[in-house]
Design goal:
Elements lengths: L13 H9 L1 H14 L3 H9 L1 H15 L9
Helix pairs in contact: 1-4, 2-3, 2-4
Length: about 70
């Protein structure tokens, strides 16, 4: 599967992904869906159990790295 470097949250542009990352509920849902779509089942399941932590880390990573946090990115 091809690796996407800059497009997060369903392939949306950075500014749209940043706005969605600020809103907790959309960030939680889209983060889980994105990880499952990338084929990272374990990372998606971890996001389900650690939703608040992943939201804060995602928000910081979106501002600093312009990409969501990729736990278990192997």
């Amino acid at each position: 599967m091809a690796s996407r470097k800059s497009a997060d949250y369903l392939g949306l542009p950075y500014i749209v992904s940043l706005i969605l990352a600020i809103i907790p509920f959309t960030s939680w849902i889209l983060g889980i869906i994105t990880r499952f779509m990338e084929g990272k089942i374990v990372a998606g399941i971890l996001r389900i159990f650690f939703v608040p932590v992943c939201w804060i880390v995602d928000l910081v990573c979106m501002i600093v790295n312009k990409s969501i946090w990729r736990c278990l990115n192997s």
